[in-house]
Design brief:
2 helices; 0% strand; 86% helix
Length: 171
Amino acid sequence: MQIILFIAFIVLIFILSGYVKKLILKTDQLHEDINNFKTKLDPLIDDTIELVKKINNISDKVEDNIDVLRKATDKVKTLVDDVVEFKDKIQNKIEPPINDTIQFYIALVKGIKAFSGKIKNYYPSKKSSNDNLLFDVEEKIDYDSEIKEEYNDINKELNEVRKKLEEMKKV
């Protein structure tokens, strides 16, 4: 019986050693597959690390550009605000005197028109061929030549003032 057990034990050892050999072959094959996988995975990991570095670099540059853009827009906004403020100051300082001057010329023209109306009513008049003038120089009335010239000069100046006022009203 011991011999049978001894033989069974030896057979069992041979069978187990066969399984151990198969297990060692499988682990060697697994080890080889892992090494192959590692050799394929190493470049992928290196490329991924390089890609992450590039993405971080691009991200930093984008943030820098956004900061520069913010600073530029702040400067432009400040400049525009300053220009608007300057325009308002100039407008507030210049507008009242210009309006006063315009009102003065308007009043002056109205006064001269009223004066010329009184003169026309005082003297019998005939329609002049020159309608652009505020005053009509009538040929029948005997004025001195100096008065006629002054009268024509006043007409010309008033026409220039009227044209300038019309231009200012258009603006």
